[in-house]
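Hi U.,

Before I forget, here's the chain from the pilot set. I'm dumping it here mostly so it's searchable later in email.
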Amino acid sequence: MNNIDGKVAYITGGTKGIGHGIAKTLLNAGMKVAISGRSIKDAEKVANELGPESKVLGLASDVTKPEDEAAAVAGILQKWGQLDVVIANAGVGIFNPVDTLSVEDWRKMIDTNLSGAFYTLKAALDPLKKSHGYYITIASLAGTNFFASGTGYNASKFGVVGFTQAAMLDLRGHNIKVTTIMPGSVATHFNGNEPSESDAWKIQPEDIGKLVEDLLKMNPRTLPSKIEVRPSRPDKK
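Structure:
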């Protein structure tokens, strides 16, 4: 896997934010990239902006639906005949105290952030076994650090970290590498933020992209299975 030129990656939630930053980086590194989002119109628009049709594929998929993820993987295999890297990036955050957090919002976070990562992996397992590929989840420092009004988000991200680490133990015998990346503050549109110059201190989406590229190029004998990444100099308000 350390030679990634011509390899195929699938990134959920790849139309913006961290997923978009990873997609750009991997394309520049010579890979072919499929990105998914809930809207096929948005996914295809972003795919067209990222690169030529021969290199980029836009797909519609709701990661809370296993059948959508199965269809997305089938579309990738139909186009390129292989799948080497899968990045479960799609996520949502809703922050309210536990006494006001709705059942609907709880389910939305668990279904998207945690169950979605599982459905994505399940859909991609056979081609990843064939390619001796790489599965990466984008978790969060919220997967190890709890905070007020974070019950649903913390639960989902703690779950993603545990799920990914256990999957790593299950899959390394199939020569599939598995890593979870746990970012701190990233300059994205997450939780209604509008990225601006005031976000310059934060991790940038392309920084996560470079981290993913470095993981893919690492010697096959070495596996960084869990990575915490944070701004080097936090903003002082």
